[in-house]
Each structure stands twice: as structure tokens, then as C-alpha cells.
Write a structure and sequence with these properties.
Length: 283
């Protein structure tokens, strides 16, 4: 074969160098998603196998397809959206109020040793009391309406947000603070430029934990005192012994909680990544 003929042979296509990191990121993310889903998939397989083999009575644990049909019926009738919207409104309002109070309280304790000395011991004692234990007391104060749910959800979110905010403000490296003092930083500059940037990861952790606690408390409160919402749907299904309805509501609760936690995790990574990029650009 001549050199000219060889030159005309097609050259195998290769990924551009710039595209390789993107392909690698997609592969890594796919592997991470599969790793996080292996346990739910195994449980689903065992559930399906147990229902098919009759290991568990259908009255105790309905087959997955039956639960899926119930979920589709709820979505088609609009009842699912009614209950989801009621629960989301409660958890968002309670979580927002609790997080703001927790950030303010944690910041006050983090910036002042005196405030921490006066507040933290009593705060640590009060946080040991579970949400359900507060229910009768709050019920006497505000009744059984929506404020009851908002208060209990806010209390659940407040605790991890306040404690993580305090921890975040306390973990600023001493050498950085000393450098700030050498450069004549004011108290405000030290907080905004040294303490707060180092506290951001811990603050996000507190917010994620706060939402988790708020979501769990929402379901507990709706189990006890509600006429709508996902927790109420679970109670309603149990009272009618419709366990397919119970399982459908439980799946929705888990899916929504997981999705919002992933969104918060993504927001944290994006925020920290953008701050790192802007810092490198400044240097």
C-alpha cells in the first residue's frame, strides 16, 4: 500500500482533551448515584420477592405494584398534591422561622462568651426534650391549629442550626485571627472576613440537619393533630387498614425529604465552589 493511500485512511475519532474531564465527571456522578441507590434497590427486590412468594401477608405488606397503583390513583385524583402542598407549607414556614432564630442565637453565642455562658447551659437542657413532649404545653397555649405545627417544627429546626452556628463561629483558626489583629482588622472585619468564611461549611451542615429535623417533626405533628398532610394520610390509611395507602405516603415522605436534602447539598457545593473560585481570582 502506498504512502498516499495510507494517508487517506480515516483516523479514529477521539474525545477532545477538554471533553475528557466532563466525561469523567459524569461517570463519577453516575457511580455515586448507583452507590447511594443500592440499598433501596435491594430492599425493593426483597419486598417484591417476599410478596410474590407469599412470605408476608398482603394485608400486612402490600405488593409494590399495588402500592404504585395507589400512588397513581392519589396523583390522578389530586389528593396527593393537596396533602403534599399542606405539608410543604408547614415545613417551609417552620423551618424558615426556626433557622432564622437558630442563626441569630448561634451567632450571639459564637460572638460573645458571656451570652454563651448564660444561654448555652439552659439551651442544652431544653433541647433534650423531644418534640412530642412539648405538644401538650404548646397545645394549651395556641390550640390545635396551624400555629401549633409551625412552633414545633421551628423548635426542631432551631436546635441543630443554633449549635452548628456556634460551632462554626468557634472553629476559626487562631493564627488567622492573630493575622487579622496584626493588620489592624476591626471586630466587624474579623467576623466578616475571617470567622464567617471558615464557618460556612458548618453553617450549611446545621441547615441540612435543621431541615431533616423539621421534616421528621412535621410528620410526627401531622400524625397527632392534623386533618391534611402526609402525616395525616399515614394515620388515615392505618385507621382504615389500607396499608397500601400508608406505604404510598411513606414513600412520598422519603422521596421529598431525600430530594430537598440533595438540593441543599448541591447548593452548599455550588456556594463553596463559587467562593473558592472568587478567592483564587482575587489572588
Amino acid at each position: 500500500m502506498s504512502a498516499d493511500a495510507t494517508a487517506t485512511l480515516p483516523v479514529p475519532a477521539e474525545h477532545p482533551p477538554a471533553a475528557r474531564p466532563k466525561v469523567q465527571r459524569i461517570v463519577r456522578r453516575s457511580a455515586t448515584v448507583l452507590e447511594s441507590l443500592w440499598l433501596p434497590l435491594v430492599l425493593l427486590a426483597l419486598w417484591t420477592l417476599g410478596a410474590a412468594q407469599g412470605w408476608i401477608s398482603a394485608q400486612v405488606l402490600p405488593p409494590p405494584l399495588f402500592v404504585l397503583e395507589t400512588l397513581q390513583d392519589l396523583a390522578a385524583s389530586g389528593d396527593l398534591w393537596l396533602h403534599v402542598s399542606a405539608s410543604m407549607q408547614r415545613v417551609l414556614v417552620g423551618f424558615a422561622v426556626g433557622s432564622l432564630i437558630g442563626l441569630a442565637l448561634g451567632t450571639a453565642m459564637g460572638l460573645s462568651r458571656s451570652v454563651e455562658a448564660y444561654v448555652l447551659p439552659s439551651f442544652n437542657a431544653l433541647v433534650q426534650i423531644p418534640v412530642l413532649a412539648w405538644l401538650p404545653f404548646v397545645l394549651l397555649l395556641v390550640g390545635i391549629g396551624e400555629p401549633l405545627k409551625y412552633i414545633l417544627i421551628a423548635k426542631a429546626a432551631l436546635v441543630p442550626v443554633a449549635l452548628n452556628t456556634l460551632q462554626g463561629f468557634r472553629q476559626a483558626p487562631v493564627n488567622l485571627r492573630e493575622v487579622g489583629e496584626v493588620y489592624g482588622y476591626t471586630r466587624r472585619q474579623q467576623v466578616l472576613e475571617i470567622v464567617l468564611p471558615t464557618a460556612v461549611p458548618t453553617l450549611f451542615t446545621g441547615i441540612r440537619l435543621g431541615f431533616t429535623k423539621a421534616w421528621l417533626s412535621l410528620v410526627v405533628v401531622e400524625l397527632v393533630a392534623s386533618s391534611e398532610g402526609l402525616g395525616y394520610l399515614i394515620v388515615y390509611g392505618r385507621q382504615l387498614f389500607q396499608l397500601d395507602l400508608v406505604m404510598a405516603a411513606v414513600i412520598v415522605v422519603g422521596a421529598i425529604g431525600y430530594a430537598i436534602d440533595r438540593l441543599l447539598d448541591l447548593a452548599e457545593r455550588r456556594f463553596i465552589g463559587s467562593r473558592a473560585t472568587s478567592t483564587e481570582g482575587a489572588h
